[in-house]
Amino acid sequence: MPLQIVRNDITKMQVDAIVNAANPSLLGGGGVDGCIHRAAGPELLAECKALGGCDIGSAKMTLAYRLPCKHVIHTVGPQYIDGRHGERALLASCYRASLVLAQQAGCGTVAFPLISSGVYGYPKEEALEVAVDSIRAFLEENELTVYLVIFDKKAFQIGKQRFSDIAAFIDDHYVAAHTDSRAERLRRNPLARRNAPEDAFLGSAAPRPCAAPMQAASLDEAVRQLDESFSEMLLRKIDEKGLADAQVYKKANIDRKLFSKIRSDAHYRPSKPTAIAFAIALELPLDETREMLMKAGYALSRSNKFDVIIEYFLRRGNYNIFEINEALFAFDQNLLGA
Question: What is the pTM of this model?
Answer without folding.
Answer: 0.73
